[in-house]
Amino acid sequence: MMIVMQEQATEEQIEEVTQSLAKLGFDVHRSTGALRTVLGAIGGNRTFDQRLVEVMDGVSEVHRITEPYKLASRTFKPERTVVQVGDLRIGGDEVIVMAGPCSAETEEQVGETAAAVKKAGASVLRGGAFKPRSSPYSFQGLGEDGLKMLRGAADDQQMKLVSEVMDISQIELVGKYSDILQVGARNMQNYTLLRELGRTKKPILLKRGISATIEEWLLSAEYILAGGNSDVILCERGIRTFETYTRNTMDISAIPVVHKLSHLPIVADPSHGIGIRDKVAPMARASLAAGADALIIEVHCNPDQAMSDGAQSLYPDQFDRLMGELRIIAPAIGRSICRESLHGKALLR
Amino acid sequence: MMIVMQEQATEEQIEEVTQSLAKLGFDVHRSTGALRTVLGAIGGNRTFDQRLVEVMDGVSEVHRITEPYKLASRTFKPERTVVQVGDLRIGGDEVIVMAGPCSAETEEQVGETAAAVKKAGASVLRGGAFKPRSSPYSFQGLGEDGLKMLRGAADDQQMKLVSEVMDISQIELVGKYSDILQVGARNMQNYTLLRELGRTKKPILLKRGISATIEEWLLSAEYILAGGNSDVILCERGIRTFETYTRNTMDISAIPVVHKLSHLPIVADPSHGIGIRDKVAPMARASLAAGADALIIEVHCNPDQAMSDGAQSLYPDQFDRLMGELRIIAPAIGRSICRESLHGKALLR
Amino acid sequence: MMIVMQEQATEEQIEEVTQSLAKLGFDVHRSTGALRTVLGAIGGNRTFDQRLVEVMDGVSEVHRITEPYKLASRTFKPERTVVQVGDLRIGGDEVIVMAGPCSAETEEQVGETAAAVKKAGASVLRGGAFKPRSSPYSFQGLGEDGLKMLRGAADDQQMKLVSEVMDISQIELVGKYSDILQVGARNMQNYTLLRELGRTKKPILLKRGISATIEEWLLSAEYILAGGNSDVILCERGIRTFETYTRNTMDISAIPVVHKLSHLPIVADPSHGIGIRDKVAPMARASLAAGADALIIEVHCNPDQAMSDGAQSLYPDQFDRLMGELRIIAPAIGRSICRESLHGKALLR
Amino acid sequence: MMIVMQEQATEEQIEEVTQSLAKLGFDVHRSTGALRTVLGAIGGNRTFDQRLVEVMDGVSEVHRITEPYKLASRTFKPERTVVQVGDLRIGGDEVIVMAGPCSAETEEQVGETAAAVKKAGASVLRGGAFKPRSSPYSFQGLGEDGLKMLRGAADDQQMKLVSEVMDISQIELVGKYSDILQVGARNMQNYTLLRELGRTKKPILLKRGISATIEEWLLSAEYILAGGNSDVILCERGIRTFETYTRNTMDISAIPVVHKLSHLPIVADPSHGIGIRDKVAPMARASLAAGADALIIEVHCNPDQAMSDGAQSLYPDQFDRLMGELRIIAPAIGRSICRESLHGKALLR
User: Fold this and answer.
1) For D185-210, what is the mean pLDDT?
2) Which residue of chain C has the CA closest to A242?
3) In the 3-class helix/strand/coil scheme, how is chain C assigned residue by residue?
4) Which chains have at least 3 CB atom pairs separated by less than 8 Å from chain A?
5) Pairing of strands B160-164, B180-183
6) Whole-angstrom Cα distance, residue D314 to residue D325?
7) How far apart are CA A119 and CA A343, in angstroms?
């Protein structure tokens, strides 16, 4: 922590601040300049509320000098984390594609969509059974019935499954069927949930909150890591901006920034990131070109009849075309699209 | 819903959209202009995803024409709601002041602070026992011990108590001690929690999410109202903007806007709204002048030693001075500060 | 400037950064901690681009330690500036009210509105002759004819006049008629214009840009001050947020923040700040309660026929009622509404 | 325009609104539903201020149904515009790369940088002689001397030149040396400047304002188009968000959105879009993958000594490597990088 004193700060005020910090366990170093004195406080508590110093007499500004997260940082772990889901490696040389419907609706819909995305090259099936909806009157998902449909289709296609958990009361149930547990954007700071997920053994796909900074997102990951679960996959899914033409603004820059700050893999979700079908493919291509470790894309065998998010779901043939474009781009970042996906070779679960 | 067709839309496309909407239960009215055709779709489902129409051929734009919330709206209930907490009336002619520490820390701290704020004119004690913290390494609250301290101090001072509940697993416990249950900003869209609170009998103080629109906030209130609990108090506590000098930007305009759109009372929280002690009083005065039904303010008997939010907590004498200023302002909006508060007369709980 | 080195930074990297900074004229102080080294660089150039250090090997973070503005800061000038406009003092004990139409349209409209606002207590007439409009097809103002109408009405009512200048080519003309030159929000960073206004003798009312931080706003004031014109009045007029119900979000907190950081007076513009008539009065009251030095309010004798901004203009009787409310609030902040305004006593221009 | 009446609106109120709109030149169509009446108003003035209807009695909401811009829209001109700059075609099948230093500093710096970027494949040289800087104490550019250096280097390398114009007083001078005139983000709503540029014959590169919506950006383009200059190139250069780790957030989604709404070509500026060197390449690749018609990139022969923006300027070898990656990606969007650029064949100016 750096404490910049006011130009007119007195020697007594400087001494007072120094003593207070020393009592709190900081080593304090003093730099006296022509106009101002600056104190460097090193050590102390990572979660110290710097505003307590800001309100002291004679203090002009206070700056933090360490990231508030630790386990999630590159400083702590310089090499990239690869999250292993059965044979699949998320964060390795191959880019993984996850695809499927927003919600499980019927066995046919789930089965047909899963077959189509597998054929095109996806290796993880996505789909929700518990849906967080901004209106209490919207479709809220099929619950366990939905999970059964999804698991069945994933098994048929030899795919992995990712599905959302909204509350600690659902962890066990969703964990029974799903290979990866998803935390939605609205729950990114549901700390009770995050803490509990830190105690599970399943990989967690943690979506970024709609107006969260990258630091807050990594702090939420820290809750899971601190609980003992090191398999966290970050997911960029669009942030809120002033633009009204798109549903959200996909923050593509989060991809290289996360790779710089953290060792955790990052997945791009262009479907929620932009929210309207005809822009999903450009944003998916852009995400890959920026270095995403994986993509998660909404595909529906019949989007016009979808019970949720139909307007941002791709038709199977659009998804297939997109996969072809992704294969062209991958070498530009020294990677390939997961070969299992390309060749459709059986994955042992 | 209004569907604006493209200028070059064909008669077939217009017919196709009309038929689809009719099938979905809408009455469709057509306006044919010189350049464009506009369709008005009335009825149908309040939660219909309008993007499904946006992606149809020939469609240029779609606009919703009803608020997506119902029970929370002035259209549904034109007269203002008064939330009764024992003898206290929140939303009536008298403005209610809630005050107290961020967190319960010790019996002395809670007791001393409660006595001070009561003496200055507050009638509800605020204080947390479960704290949502962005870092897993920060102080997380005392739990039930904290609730006991708060209840004890509230009873000693004949005050009501408001305290936060973070998860459905805490509802029963917090409800045992607290008169009003608070939902924090980070949980504004924790729908599992909101739904469960709809089934309780306690008044709910619902904080606005840090980047939530007013519409989203009212939709979250709708979850509680739809569950059968009509005692919802909205709380403005600052939104995120680009300003870095303040912690949040208090959206004072939310006060008159909420009063226009909804019948629910609104409380202003200038402590979180601005986040730094010396600006709390100006923002409290501004909130009252804009028409707030109540204020909730952090006060600590010894802010420099506070375990959380000390930098935004008022000293007791600052709070006392502020109460005097508020009494000058209240008549400008045709109100008074709660007389119980002024005269310190016993409130029967 | 504080340079935080990475934990794994080598001694060579630290030395390299130190030497580079010394060459650039900084005094460098070193603090060596258990985990990290921190360098304090004092002196050097106020406008040095800190990113040049951020990209050096071994550097983790860089923090600026002085405000980038100087003449606008409280550090430079601790006592508050009072801008004198004839007999009027903006920033003194009395709060000044400026009112009038958005644009000058006809002699009758300007004259009637001026008479009404003067009678209610305003002492400065506002009105535009050059209008910045987001569409090239909107009404762009009457130019010099409008200025003549405004000057005439101000003289008739013994009021001062504030009017907008959009470009350096208009400075002389607008300055011929107007007592205060206004810079609109969209021109807050039109540096060519600001630099030229620094060379005039007229007071400048500088509106905050729609997404400007307070620091950027003070830097724009610095351009004017650095040119030799010390009569700058800042004007808060609403910022852009995610809220769609209001046109802008009035940042009331900017009022106490500006008073803390700068000696310059601040005017609140609730008409643009909220953008819809029935919320103007609450926001005007809130601005005063937060400590505004002056208010600027759109009033039109016939808002329904206004050529611009009619929907946010008050009717004369609404403005009169508002003035009464403001007189109740002013004592709460130890001020009064300008007595000339109250008593309508002649102001010598 | 769609006017949604309140549920409780009376027949008189509906009639009043209808009559008012008819007087204003609108054709009004009425849809009477079970709960609400909706009025469709077609025709009238494109720039009509809808808030005037919003404040009428009985009105609940008003929605605009036409874009406020016309000449910039796809509705007006369905086929894409190709801006011709000598032999170069911006918006055609080949993607154009513009590169060069932030500012002209010395003849050597400009010459060396131009040679390097030309060799790597750029066909337009970028560089500033008039610099808009947020601080009055920062380097403000070399003026005409800088323009001469830039023109000289462009001629030597047979490249085109793009340079910024900050004010109407600079148009003639900059136009004398530069092939394309750039309008900076801070001037996007400097309407006096835009109107004047509409009267020139030079292509205009119009940068998006830092918090402008896409609609506002297209309205600014409309000012230029309405003046008679149809050669407008839009430039996405990052928007302001809450993220502090990056300087701006590059809005990659603006690329497909602009292509949907407008016929004008769009250039991506990843250097300003992200603001820090090591993230420029990922954002450049992402922009191309999303469909950008051109890229504009800051390159400096010696970034560590640059007088402005050195930290976001690429080293020549980084730029060269990036060009290789772009050539891999281009076929994924059915395009190629401008062949002149690849083969270095002479361009006749």
Assistant:
1) 95
2) C242
3) CEEEECCCCCHHHHHHHHHHHHHCCEEEEEEECCCCEEEEEEECCCCCCCHHHHCCCCEEEEECCCCCCCCCECCCCCCCCCEEECCEEECCCEEEEEEECCECCCHHHHHHHHHHHHHHCCCEEECECCCCCCCCCCCCCCCHHHHHHHHHHHHHCCCEEEEECCCHHHHHHHHHHCCEEEECHHHCCCHHHHHHHCCCCCCEEEECCCCCCHHHHHHHHHHHHHCCCCCEEEEECCECCCCCCCCCECCCCHHHHHHHHECCCEEECHHHHHCCHHHHHHHHHHHHHCCCCEEEEEECCCHHHCCCCHHHCECHHHHHHHHHHHHHHHHHHCCEECHHHHHCCCCCC
4) B, C, D
5) parallel
6) 15
7) 9
**Rg of the Cα trace of chain A?**
23
What is d(CA B25, CA B41) in angstroms, rounded to the nearest whole number? 9
Average pLDDT over residues C147-174: 96
Residue D93 CA to residue D293 CA, distance in Å, equals 8
Residue C346, pLDDT > 50, answer no
Domains A2-63 and A83-343 in one fold? no
Which residue in chain C has the smallest CA separation from B252? C252
Q: How far is C86 from chain B (nearest CA, A)?
A: 30
Mean pLDDT value of segment A293-309: 89
Q: Quick check: D217 and D208 in contact, CB under 8 A?
A: yes
- What are C254's strand-pairing partners? none
Spatial separation of the C-alpha atoms in residues B29 and C344, rounded to whole Å: 57
- Tell me, rounded to whole angstroms, the distance of Cα B250 from its chain centroid: 13
What are the pLDDT digits (tens) for B307-333?
777 788 999 999 999 999 999 999 999
Specify the pTM: 0.88
Which ipTM value was assigned to this complex? 0.88
CATH code reported for the domain at B2-63: 3.30.70.1140
What would the two tokens of residue C289 be?
A: 């309660």
**Bridge partner residues of A2 (DSSP):** A40, A63
Instruction: Identify whether the C-beta of residue D71 lies closer than 8 Å to the C-beta of residue C136.
Output: no
Which chain B residues have a beta carbon less than 8 Å from that of C257?
243, 245-246, 279
For D180, other C-beta atoms within 10 Å of its C-beta total 24
The domain spans of chain A are 2-63, 83-343
CATH topology (fold) of D83-343:
TIM Barrel (3.20.20)
For C2, the closest of A63, A75, A244 (CB atoms) is A63
Q: Which whole-number Å values give the CA distances from C185 to D36, D37, D190, in the listed order?
A: 39, 38, 11
pLDDT of residue B6: 85
Q: Is any Cβ of chain D less than 8 angstroms from the Cβ of A276? A: no
Write b or e for each residue in A156-191: b if 16 or more Cβ atoms lie within 10 A of its Cβ, otherwise e. Answer: ebbbbbbbbbbbbebbeebbebbbbbbbbbbbbbbb
Query: How many whole angstroms separate alpha carbon D214 and alpha carbon D224?
Result: 16
C5 phi/psi in degrees, rounded to 5: -80, 155
Which is it for the CA torsion B120, B122, B128, B133, positive or negative? negative
How far apart CA A142 and CA A273 sit, in angstroms, is: 24
pLDDT tens-digit map of D259-296: 999 999 999 999 999 988 999 999 999 999 999 999 99
DSSP B1: -
CA distance linking residue A328 with residue A349, whole number of Å = 29
> How distant is the alpha carbon of residue A249 from its chain centre?
15
Residues C213-237: tens digit of each pLDDT? 999 999 999 999 999 999 999 999 9
Q: Which chains touch D (3 or more CB pairs under 8 A)?
A: A, B, C
Instruction: Look at D304 and C52 and tell me if their CB atoms are within 8 Å.
Output: yes
Chains B, C: CB pairs < 8 Å: 131
Facing residue for D135 by CB, picked from C132, C219, C310: C219
Nearest to D84 by CA among D202, D197, D218: D202
Q: What are phi and psi of A154, to 5 degrees?
A: -60, -45
